[in-house]
Each structure stands twice: as C-alpha cells, then as structure tokens.
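thought: fold this chain, then report.
action: predict
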Amino acid sequence: MARFQTLDFLNKSRKWDSLIRSLCLKLKDPEKALLLLRDCLTNLCILPSSFTFHSLIHSFASQGKMDKAIEVLELMIHDKVNYPFGNFVASSVISGFCKISKPQLALGFFQNAVNSQALRPNIATYTALVGALIQLGRVSEVSDWVSWIENEGLEFDVVFYSSWICGYFREGVFVEALRKHKEMIERGIVPDTVSYTILIDGFSREGYVEKAIGFLEKMKKDGLKPNLVTYTTIMQGFCKKGKLDEAYALFKMVENLGIEVDEFMYVTLIDGFCTSGDIDCVFGLLEDMEKKRISPSIVTYNSIINGLCKAGRTPEAVDFSKGIAGDAVTFSTLLHGYIEEENVIGILETKRRFEEAGVCMDLVMCNTHIKALLMVGALEDAYAFYKGMLAKGLVADSVTYCTLINGYCKVGRIDEALEIFDEFRNTSISSVSCYKCMIYGLCKNSMVDMAIEVFIELSEKGLELVSGAYTSLIKASFKEHGADGVLKFVHRIENLEPEVFDIVSNSAICFLCKRGFPLDACAVFMRMRIKGSVVISRSYYSILKGLISDNQKGLGWPSLNTFVKEYGIDEPWVSKALVSYICMKDVDKAVFFLANTQNTSAVAFPISVLKALTKKGRILDAYKLVIGAEGNLPVIELVDYSIMVHALCKEGYLDKALDLCALAKKKGITLNIYAYNSVIYGLCHQGCLVQAFRLFDSLEKIDLVPSEITYAILIDSLCKEGHLLDAKQLFEKMVTKGFNPNVRVYNSLIDCYCKLGNMEEALNLLIDLKARCINPDEFTVSALINGYCQKGDMEGALGFFFEYKKSDILPDFLGFMYLVRGLCAKGRLEEARGILREMLQTRSVLELINKVNTETGTELVENIISLCEQRSIQEAVTLLNKVGSLLFPLGRRHRAQNIAEKEENIHEGEAICAVSSKYSSLNCQTDLDGRPSNEKKVGKVVDDYYNFEKGSRLPDFESYYSLIASLCSRGEVLEANRMTKLMLFDMGTGG
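observation:
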C-alpha cells in the first residue's frame, strides 16, 4: 500500500513539474509558474524537482527579473528543500545580473558561491564571469582567471574565448583581441560562426571594414557559412564610413544568396541613409519592407524620425510620427529635434502629444523633457518634473543634473543652480561633467572665487581633470582681475596634487604669454621651479617667445639656458625656441647656426619669426633668413610668401621679391593673384612698364585671372606715365571682362584727363562713375578742381567745390591747395581766405598738418590761422606749400591715398598691396629710398623667374607695340625709338 502511495505522490510531483516547466519554457510566463511553485510547497506538500527550480531561475534571469530569480534560489536552498545549486544556476544568475547592467552583483554572487564552497565552477560559469568583468571594464583581469581555470584542469572552449575577445573589442584594444584569437587557434580550438562574427563586428564597428571583409573571406575558406548577423555587422561598418553604395550592394548580395533579410538589416541600411541625409532612399527601403511583408517595428520608425530630425526636417518627422504609436524614444527624438532648431512652439506641441498619449517615460526622455522645458523658459516646471522623477520610478543621473545646472546658469539664476549642484553632491553619482557645468556657470556669472572652490573639490575627489574646467577658470580670472587674477588662481591650487598643479600652471604660462604678459608667466614659472614642478617644453617656448616679442631678450636668455640644459637641443620645442631667439637677435648668426646644425631635420625656424620680422619692418632680414636657410625652411604657406613678396615690392626690393617667387615655385607652391599684383606693382613703381605688361599677359597662360587690383595698378601706372590712350583701352578691356572698376580706377583716369586739360572726358568719366552707383571721394573732387584751375576756370572750380560740399565730400590737402593757389593767382584773396578757413576745419587736412607738427615740433595750424586772421594770405599759402613739400617730397602724390587709407589685409583675401594710385607721382626711375633702378637687371630677374622650369619664352610683341604706338601718337619719337631697340634686344634680334 505504501508503495502505491509513493508512486501516486511521484506521479503528482511529475505532473506539477511538467506544468511549471511548461509555463516557464513554452508559455514564457514564469510569474504563474512561481505561483504554482509556492502553492506546491505551502499547500500541496509537493516538492518539485531541482530541474524545475533551475528552469524557473533561468527563465526569470533571462527576462532580467533578478529579484524573482533570487527568490526562487532562496526557496531552493532553504532547509525545507535543500537542493544544491550547480553551474547552470550560477551561470544563469551571473548572466541575469549582467543583463540588467549590474555586473558588480554578478561578481559578488560568484565570489560568495565559491567562498561558501557551494559551487565548483565549470567553463560555462567562468564564461559568464568573463561577461561580468567585461561590463565592469576589467577585461585585463580575465588573464588572472585563466591561470586559475588551467590549474582547475578545465578545458577552454570557443564560447569562452569569443566572450574574452568581445571584451577587448569593447575596450578598443584590437591588437589584444587579435592576439587572443590567435591564441585560441594555437590551443586547438576551432573558431565557429559566432567567434568569426564577433571579430567581424569588432572591426566593422570601428570602421575597419576592409579588415572585417578579410575575416569574412577566411571564415568562408574555413568552411563556415556566414549568417545574417555576420553580413549585417559588415553593412554597419560600411554605413559608418559613409560607403552607402557598398552597403546597398552587400544588401542585394545577401538577398541573391537566398538569405531572408530581417528588419534589423533594413534598419541598419535605413539608419545609414538617414545619416547621409538621403531621405528619399529611406522611404524607398520602407516601401520595400512592406512589399516583402516585413512589418516595421517602432525601432524602424524611430530611425526614420531621427534621420528627418538630423536633416533639419523636424516638421516632416512630426507628420510621420502621427501615423504610428510612438514610444519614449519617438518623442525624445522629436523634442531633441525641436531643441536643436530652438522651436518653442514645436516643443510645446510635442509635450502636449506625449502627455496625451500617456507614454511611459524612460530616463533619456525625462532628461530631454527637462532640457526642452528649460529652453522654453519653464524653469519651475523643469524643477518640478525633476522632483517628480522618483514617483515615476526613475532616478536622476549625471545628465539630469548637468542639464538643470546648465539651464539655470544660462539665465543667471545661479543660486538655484548651486542648490541643484548640492543635491548632486549628496548622491553617489561621480560625474566630472556636473562639476564642469557648475564651473562654467560660475565663471560666466563672474563668481570666479566660488568656481575655484568647486575646481579644488573636483580635484580633491580624484576625478579626471578636464582641460575645459581649468581653462575656463584661467580665462575668467584674467577677465576679472587681469594677469594678477591668473597668478592668484595658481597660488590657490598650490596644495593640490602635484600633477594637477603642474597641468594648470603650464596652461597658465601659455595663456599669459599668448595674451602678452610674459613677465607674469615668468612669475608662475619661478613658482613651479621652487616647488620642483615639471615645466613642459611648450611653456619654456611660450615664455621665450613672449619675452622676445616684448623686447625682454635679456630676461629670455637665462630661461633659454635652462631650457637647453633640461631638454637638450634635439627636443623640437628647444630647437624652435633657440632658433627663434637667434633669428630675432641676429639673422646672420641664425643662418650660420642653421647651416651648421647636424640634425637639420629637427631644426627649422618657426614661421612666426618671418611674420615678426616682417611686422617690425625687417623685411630684408626675413628675406635673408628664407634664402640663407633654404635647407631648414619650415612649411611656408602661400599667404606667408605673398606677405613677404608684397613687403619687398613695397620697399623697392623687386629683385629680392622675384627671388622669393622663384623659391616658392621651386617648393611647388603656385602663387596667387595677390602675389602677382605685388610684383606687377613693384615693376610699375620702378618704371618697368614693359616687364609689368609681359607678366600681366602671361597670367592667362598659367590659368590665373587678373583681379580688379591688377587692372587698377596698370591703369594708374599708364596714367602716371602719360599713356592715356593705353590706359583707356585697358579700362575698356577691364569692363568687357566683367570687372567693376572702383573709384580709384576712375580717379586715375580723371586725374590724367584733368592734367592734360581734357575736362570734357574727365566729366564724362564722372557721369559714368555715378551711373555705376559709385560715390566720388575727396580725390575725385581734388582732381577735377585741379583741372578747372589749370584752365583758369575758377568759377567752375568753386562751383564744383560747393556742389560736393553739400554732399559732405571735400577735397584733400592738395585739392584745397589747387583752389587756394588758383584764387590767389586771380587776386581773389578774400575768397582764398574763406577756402583756407574751410581747409583748416577739414579732419583729413588737419591730420596731415599735425603729422608735420610732430616731425618739426612747430604749431603750424595756429600759425596758419593767425596769418589768415591778419589777412596775410600769401604768407599762409607759402607756409602750406612748405607743408606740402614735406608731405609729398617727390611732387604731387596722386590723391595721397597712401596716407588717407589703410592697406587691405591679405588674410581676409583682399588685395595685399595698395593700389598704385596711392603713389602716382613717384619718379618712375627711382626707388622708395632714392636708389636709381636698374631696368635691365630687373628685367633679367623677371625673365629668369618667368622662365623657371618652363624654358625660354618669346616676349609679347603686342605689349611693346601698344606702348610704341602710344609714344608715336604723342610725338615722343626718341622714347619710341628707345623702346623699339629694347624690344628688339629682348626678342634676340638686336645688337
């Protein structure tokens, strides 16, 4: 009878086992299974098998319900049941904790189980342990466990190594991942599809698709068949690198292989096209999915919505989202899109939609919602929402606190920001970003002292030091208290960790030197030396550079000695500093030093030296350095060559400018039109019009288009030389080419016509100038007044003067002088007196006279006014003539633009040389410093430059012909004959 009762009990037990396992494994409902288990143990006095407990634990762990899994485990090991748990349970629990991102609990469970001797781990359990260590970022510790496993006599399998390799990929250590793959093969473990897929995925994710494809081919060669996951990982790699054509081709290849494509592969491709902004292809893929009856999930829809938002098409994303049941990700994406566009109405509408939809918010959506509320100015609502997060079962993270702190700081509500910061400090969250946000906010609101306290706390907590935090403090300290504020900040952090003090102090040195306070930087440097801190080479270089720029070369020498002793001359910053110092002090010694340095690859003067020399007016030293140290040249950019060429041409060193052009060409640098403009200006300035026009004609042959400045230089030079016919033809060519002549070009032609007495043409040009909506300037008015005065038409001159006076356009110094002299010559002294008074009230004229005041030490304006009051007009005119001779020693500088206007800046892409109309009255045969020009020498240099690496070239006959024809038309036969001889000589036919 007892036997039958036992059998009956066992049958009942099996039935309950079967029912519970069926709920777990087939119906995936472990909650009901647990209810039955409790009922069996409590009410039915039935003890299910250990396998039933194991199945239930595994089921809960797989679903991430670790509280329930642990509850079943506790029931299993309770005294009433007392089942031992093995590796299946252990690996299930460890994997479960990893699944819910709590690897620390997984590791603790493993250690407790082993220490209590309740578990003797097998390779499956150790594999689960590897997963926990990887999540903790402690993949390096796996090697220690490998030794333990070997001592236990366990055999490694492909799953263990695959998990280990996956960990190294996660840490970005690709070399070690490959080494472990090799080690696995050497142990005789055969890679399977999963292990190869892990390798392919690791390299694809980092953009090394070619390497991934190599493993794919090896996988096929080993007889393994890649699966859909394998191909999808490669597609992800292609999409990440923007190679969408290759990704789509792979997609089609997978279809042709007969592999059934799933939604995830489509999503991968859709996401790639979204990133590239090709939304049309995205919708094409969506239609393709529907044709193949692959139902898009919310993941697919969210990917499309994200792509539309990133492409700036948030309204379209909103319309698209209205046709689906959105989740937290959907609305977070829409909110983020509107936040980026700063669309307040869109934010409020999206907020209304997700509130109506009753979407269950996750932490990401909460943070996005808070950011949106802050952006629309609803700060109280944002704070209330933050306070209500706990009621939603959500805990604020570092992003939440950063968003709130940043939002309050932006609107200057620093007290509330500090309150939130204090709440953050009371949590267990360790976040550098929150400290950084608080420091930024305090600095922005001029609360530097408190910001420094926050920085000190950040450092004392041992958190990672981020450059943005201390850089902001250095800048804010400087803004509030100047260089002393920076010194005060450095002093306050002296007691922090040496590494922190060193990093901040070195940054402070570089900052102070950059702002022009090298002596204060030296104070920081001395403090660092006293403390025994490490002064980096860049700090030494910054101090030396700053002292040299500040003309404190004497102070720089001891620092340079220390620098060389500490780092040695082979250190790049040392050689850079040493060469900079010598270059600025003595260029000849610098060239000698560079020429005799053995390690020439390490020693080259910095480009900043050339800029400094040029800026200080030492252009010849800069030229000497470039030419003399050709073997040790740094990388000189086109703009630097152009600046030097311009400076040399401006100073009259045309042959040297052309040497630089030839050097640039030799270095493979194609000069731009700005450099050519400088050379053309230099040639014109030295009276070498033929060479200038030859260079101008050659521009088209080297695919270089002349600019307005090019034409302006040549037109002005022709006008100065009296070649008016050629100037007019060039002007017409300029207009035909589509260029818009500026007022300077018109001024050159008007001035020339006025000097030749052709007022009709001059006035026609004035009408044309106005028709182009160009306003005449003081130089235009001066030129026309001069024309009227030369003809003795003082009524015309006065009428013109008063007409433009109404438009607030008055003549320049010389224009006034033309008018005054003309009136005096006609005996109209009272009118001349009135014009003189007007002249002495004009700002541009006063600036010129005051310039002479500074040079002569006399009070000219007062003297001239006094003479006018005494009606001594002739004496006043005589005094002003002397002023004019001092201002324009070589005669009338055409419109004096060299004084009245600033030169254009090459760095902004403007003309690097002033238009030559500024210097129209310079003697065409004289350099700026009065040296006679050598036309043949310059001509030879031009030829040498133009023929560099191109072979010889015949001179342009048309350029000569136009000049000779112009000379003949004016009856200047001797000059035309000289030009003809020069043409024949250049063409190789003259004797």
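thought: worth noting. Residues 1-10, 598-602, 890-942, 944-956 have pLDDT under 50 and may be disordered.
final: tokens above.
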